[in-house]
């Protein structure tokens, strides 16, 4: 067997495994702290690289049972988009409110864009589009009746 026949982990895979190890063993609540921990482990990374890794690994900032904000991996992460959305809503949406033809979702800090992207990918019949901020999502529908149905559906997942 030649060395070329063996699938060796890439630098990226090794770094991402290290990230998972770090966040499972430490309270890491910022990209800066994660970068510092990676540096201590011998990895030289930029903030952009850490940000991409966080997205690829489906890591979110969440309040743990001790009230501490920390990064963690969403588990289990379902394969189909609707299941992904339901899981993320269950874990990360704090409130749902209908205002006229819109539904306003308040999410855990830093998760607005993630949830909005999942909503966009599911292609709900009544949803025209989303606008997301750091922890707030505006879900636009055609009218108040569609907004009510959308809010009720999302509320049922909480």
TrEMBL record:
Annotated Arginine repressor DNA-binding domain residues: 11-75
Gene3D superfamilies hit by this protein: 3.30.1360.40, Winged helix-like DNA-binding domain superfamily/Winged helix DNA-binding domain
Location(s), subcellular: Cytoplasm
Domain named Arginine repressor C-terminal: residues: 91-155
CC per GO annotation: cytoplasm
One record GO biological process: regulation of arginine biosynthetic process
Pathway: Amino-acid biosynthesis; L-arginine biosynthesis [regulation]
InterPro entries: Arg_repress (IPR001669), Arg_repress_C (IPR020899), Arg_repress_C_sf (IPR036251), Arg_repress_DNA-bd (IPR020900), WH-like_DNA-bd_sf (IPR036388), WH_DNA-bd_sf (IPR036390)
Keywords: Amino-acid biosynthesis, Arginine biosynthesis, Cytoplasm, DNA-binding, Repressor, Transcription, Transcription regulation
Superkingdom of the organism of origin: Bacteria
Matching PANTHER family: ARGININE REPRESSOR
Function: Regulates arginine biosynthesis genes.
Name of the protein this chain belongs to: Arginine repressor
Species, as recorded: Weissella viridescens
Species classification: Bacteria, Bacillati, Bacillota, Bacilli, Lactobacillales
Gene this chain is encoded by: argR
